[in-house]
Known about the structure:
Blueprint: H1 9-32, E1 58-61, E2 65-68, E3 73-80, E4 91-98, E5 103-105, E6 112-117, E7 121-130, E8 135-145, E9 174-177, H2 183-189, E10 195-198, E11 203-205, E12 208-210, E13 219-223, E14 246-250, E15 257-259, E16 264-269, E17 271-275, E18 285-287, E19 300-305, E20 308-310, E21 319-324, E22 326-331, E23 334-338, E24 346-352, E25 357-360, E26 363-366, E27 369-373, E28 386-391, E29 394-396, E30 419-421, E31 424-430, E32 433-437, E33 445-450, E34 463-469, E35 472-476, E36 478-483, E37 494-500, E38 503-507, E39 524-528, E40 533-538, E41 541-544, E42 547-551, E43 560-562, E44 565-567, E45 573-575, H3 582-588, E46 593-595, E47 598-600, E48 622-624, E49 628-631
Parallel strand pairs: 2-8, 9-10, 10-13, 11-14, 12-15, 13-16, 14-17, 16-19, 17-20, 18-21, 19-22, 20-23, 21-24, 22-25, 23-26, 24-27, 25-28, 26-29, 27-30, 28-31, 29-32, 30-33, 31-34, 32-35, 33-36, 34-37, 35-38, 36-39, 37-40, 38-41, 39-42, 40-43, 42-45, 43-46, 44-47
Antiparallel strand pairs: 1-3, 3-6, 4-7, 5-6, 7-8, 48-49
Amino acid sequence: MIDRDVIPIRSVVVLYFLLVMVAITASLEAQTRPLPKPRKVRVVSIDSQPSPKNQPPLVSASASETIVLPASATLKGTVTDDGLPRLGTLTQTWSKLSGPGTVAFDNASATSTTASFSSAGNYVLRLTASDSALVSTADVRITAKPTAAAAGSTTPILPQIQVDTTYVRPSGRTISVAVGGNFQAALNDAQPGDVITLTPGATYSGPFTLPVKSGSGWIVVRSATADGSLPAAGTRVTPAIRHLMARILGPAGNPAIITAPGAHHFRFIAIEFAPQAGTYNNGLVRLGTGSETKSADFPHHIILDRCYIHGDPATGGKRGVMFSGNSLAVIDSYLSDWKGVGHDTQAIAGWTGNGPWAVINNYLEAAGENMMVGGADPAIVGLVPSDIEVRNNTFSKPLEWNPFNPAYDGSAWSIKNLFELKNARRVLIADNLFQHNWVAAQSGRAILFTVKDQDGFATWSTIEDVTFVRNTIRRSTSGITISGDDGGYPSAGGRRFLIKDNVLVEIGGAEWGEGKAPSYVDSILFALTGGVDDLTIDHNTAIHTGSIIIADGAPYARFICTNNIVQHNSYGIKGSGYGVGNATLAQFFPSAVVRRNVMVGANATAYPADNYYPKSLAEVGFINVKEDLRLDAASPYVAAATEGIPIGAQALVPIR
Length: 656
């Protein structure tokens, strides 16, 4: 029987033979087939070097320099950078590293700029550059030598830097802000050269912040009223044109305008700044904070031009404009109703900032001090506000505030004085009218130059180089007080004052509180109550009821009193504890020059030789003692001054 699942051995052998033959054939074909062409291979080389590393900026500064004050130093620096990091910003800033006084840079963010110095000494200034990640510095040494005046001259130095108030015609866009529009957005958007116009009669409620802009072009903020309808530049405005102005409001005691640190180059034209109705404003236009700790934070180049800046008629307000910066000006404007009860108020006040400042052709009204420089300590060591011009203004208090006047309205505002300096250097006060001041919170002295370290932190406080010329002071209890020490904390004293060519009329009398209850104050033409160096009182004319000079405190070195027309009255020149005339001069004014004065009613034996002693005003020879204080051609004193010219003020105009 045959098994059908078993393959015969013969079939297996045949199959094996066939497979061997197929393998041999395939091998022979492979050996004779042509080889394929080789493919090209691309080789990539990879550079594994690291990315460039950020390097600090390269900074250099100009060589050391010696200047004679009040000249400025020219600073020339260079800053270069590698452009890294990619998203960084390259900045550069000048600062004071060391030195005895304050330093004001014209543009602290420019590599090349100028620097002015408040006092003589050795300074180190630093240029710092940053690329946002790394910082480099370079230093320059400046030697500031004292001026000739500081070396012994008795003549004050005039302001060495002036605020340039020339109007620069805009070259950019006009941004109109309609009623209800976003004024702050316009301020933020504006660029140097632009004009922002505000709608006349519209109210924009602040506070608004003046931002920092690059460049040195002006941004003008003004009423949209056409120039032809506004008072011309150089013309003082009055409230009568307020309908042509736009109004910026300070709400509920807050300011209308404040400044970002370092804000600059804004000019306001024909704007009314006002408080919210019925509220007491604590400071309406604040140009700075008053507490800056570095000069770079001061606002600068800001001008208020033909503006109306007022407190509330019923409740008053503390301060119209605060100066706390450099190159600030108020011109051709009207400031009124700055008044309060129990505290100081001012139309304009400033106590920090390097200057220059300009207050020109304004009406300034306040109950406390119509204008004051000082009154609080600067936070920057050595800072003295400097290069200040006060010209062609009217300083006045309304007669309705005066309890001794028939027009009195029953108010109780805290009345002090018309103008006061406490910490200032190089001040020109010229061609102003100061009027209406009486006994109240102070003793009725119109002008005070009294050195004061107010809070005990500014021992460098001083008053230096004051030129007070061609002013009229009228209708006041007393005239001028000059003191190198206002009491309290130690200070650096005062030096170099010139009081010349001024007219003082209607000084003293019951209408201004002299001899009236409750104070029973005596009128004084010049109160000299704490020695200063180099005070000159020359060519002034006065009609007054009280003493010429009352002296107290430290002596006055190198005192000069020449060519004045005054009245002796009861005491003439009298010092505390000393007799009239020569005894007082010897004690309080050693080696004084007192010559060619007309002292009406004085006893010639009590005073130095080479002065004149007519018995009455009629003998002086005025054209008209009540209306025109120029000397008549027939006056015996028309050529009797030390220079051979008329005694008394030389720039007289008829009394108005």
